[in-house]
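Slide 14.
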Amino acid sequence: MVDRILEFRGINRDHLGMYFEELGGRLVTESFPYVYEGERWRGEILSEDELAFTKTFIVNAVHIRFAAKTLEELERLIKNYRYKTTRVGG
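Slide 15: predicted structure.
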């Protein structure tokens, strides 16, 4: 298996888990690391921290490990997951 760890900021941890489920994953643990397994991939929500940019501007930072059987499948998984986490300002 190949894997990659990415950080996502400002998105609720529960939503990040829901995105794995929308991609066909199934939750297999109930605490950190939250593990989601798909047909040929695995996602792990490893940790959640808070980052303070100022005293009042604080966001969460969630570290996620993506793993798949092949590099091509890993890249597809990350691409599809990032699509779900895209936030458009306006």
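Speaker note: The radius of gyration is 13 Å.
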